[in-house]
Each structure stands twice: as C-alpha cells, then as structure tokens.
Design a protein that fits this description.
With about 260 residues, the chain is mainly β. It has one domain (about 1-15, about 30-255): Porin (Beta Barrel). Helices cover about 5% and strands about 50% of the residues. It has one helix at about 1-15; strands spanning about 35-45, 60-70, 75-85, 95, 105-110, 115-130, 145-165, 185-205, 210-220, 240-255. The strands form 2 sheets. It has an 8-stranded antiparallel barrel with strand order 1-2-3-6-7-8-9-10. Strands 4-5 form a two-stranded antiparallel ribbon. The two termini are about 40 Å apart.
Length: about 260
C-alpha cells in the first residue's frame, strides 16, 4: 500500500516538474482537441455489495490511450489490473462433524490460499463540462484549465479466483480428530466477463500537452464465483467494486 501511495504522490508531483516555455507570456494556449495521448493511473480499489464479503480493498494500476475528439469529449482505450490478495475466504472457518451439529467444532484450514486477479480492457467515454478549446488573447499568461467530467465505459474483464489448501469438511466422524491433511483439490474460477462502469472526476490541463485527472468509478462485472457453503461463502453474482485515484496523460500529437 505504501508503494501505491508513493506512486500516486509521484503522479501528482510530475506536472509541477515539467518545464514551461520560457516565452509563456507571449503564447496563446493550444487546444488539446484532435490530439492523441498516453497515460497511466493509480487507483485505490474497494469491493462493494456482495463482493465485499469475499475480498478487501486493494490498489490497482492501469495504462491507456486517449483521443480528445472534441472540446467536451474524450475517448480512451484502457487496460487495468487488480489483485485481491489474500481473499477473505482464506481466513474462513467451518464446522465439523458436518452432519452432527451437537458435536460441532470450529476449524480453520492452516494451508488455505485464496486470491483473485482481474485484468480488464475497456473503451471509455468522457463528457467534459468545460470547453477545452478556450480563446485566450495573445499576451495573457498561460493558465491552468480545470473542469469536471462524467465518464462511462464497457469492455471485457478477465478474472481468475484461485483456491487451494482447504480442509475437506465432509469427513466422517470416526472418533478421532479431523484429518487436516485431507484437503479439497485446488481450483480456479476463471472466465472472461463483460462489464461496464460509470464515474466522474475533474480534469486539470497543466499545459498544452499534459493533463491530470482525479477520478472515481463504479464497476460491475457480469461474472460469478462458486459457493463454498461449508466456509459460509455464498455464490457471488455479479461482482462489483469502486475505485478512486489519479490519472496522468501526456498528449503526443494530432492525428
């Protein structure tokens, strides 16, 4: 987590380190409209709704290509990755003997391992409330232009939830303690699900080529994880999370 906090701080500080033109007072601000750019983001990720019972908050990162196709619109193609490690299932307990509630004892699987990765590819759209092609009379100082935006997107989310080392709770009661070496076979819930998100944020145009965004999003994946009823984990469908963070983009030229 400290690594990600440092990454976010670096994203925020980088625009301050970029040099301005020495003749800034004699220049007209150039519009970003028609430019393409590359960017990176660092986000804090929090599972919500039913998914919060399976996983804790974590961090995510992403890269994207951006195209400012109008004064109030932008299109992005984004890849981002999340790793939930460890999952809450790893710390779950179960009761044994399974069919004799009067004799139940609570057990935890000491070798249990559970984590999930999500790799997503989305196409994002932005609606900016501020015109990003302002007319500035020559001779005025270049100024930072900031404004809020709405964002939305859809695409594919590849998830892989891995589980191993869970004690088999269906062992018969033979009068001896449960055999903790008898574990369920490792398994993975993996699929490619379609999903979508909606969000909002603020874009700050630092100069003609550099912008920084503060953004927050709500994601929903139309995928499922199987139930692990003995460990008090119900079937999970769909999966949803929110993320908040910073994105920085650099416009490299026009199409």
């Amino acid at each position: 987590m400290n690594r990600v906090k440092g990454f976010l701080a670096l994203l925020i500080a980088m625009p301050l380190l970029l040099p301005l033109s020495p003749d800034v007072s004699a220049q007209v601000r150039e519009s970003v409209v028609g430019k393409i750019g590359i960017g990176v983001n660092g986000m804090f990720n929090f599972p919500v709704q039913s998914m919060r019972h399976r996983f804790r908050g974590t961090e995510t990162w992403g890269i994207f290509l951006a195209y400012a196709n109008g004064p109030r619109s932008t299109v992005e193609v984004e890849y981002h990755r999340v790793r939930y490690d460890p999952g809450k299932l790893q710390e779950s307990t179960f009761y044994w003997p399974e069919d004799q509630p009067a004799k139940w004892q609570n057990y935890k699987s000491p070798l249990a391992r559970n984590f999930m990765t999500v790799n997503s590819f989305t196409v994002n759209g932005f609606y900016h409330f501020v015109n990003r092609a302002p007319a500035e009379p020559e001779g005025l100082l270049r100024r930072v232009l900031a404004g809020p935006f709405l964002m939305y997107g859809a695409g594919f989310y590849h998830y892989n939830n891995k589980m191993s080392g869970f004690i088999f709770g269906g062992q018969p009661d033979t009068g001896v303690p449960i055999d903790q070496s008898l574990v369920l076979s490792p398994r993975s819930d993996t699929d490619v699900a379609w999903g979508f998100y909606v969000g909002a944020g603020v874009e700050i145009l630092i100069n003609d080529n550099t912008a920084i965004d503060l953004r927050g999003r709500y994601h929903m994946m139309i995928g499922e994880l199987i139930a692990m009823e003995a460990f008090n984990a119900a079937r999970l469908f769909p999966m949803s999370y929110v993320d908040f963070g910073v994105a920085m983009k650099y416009y490299i030229g026009r199409l």
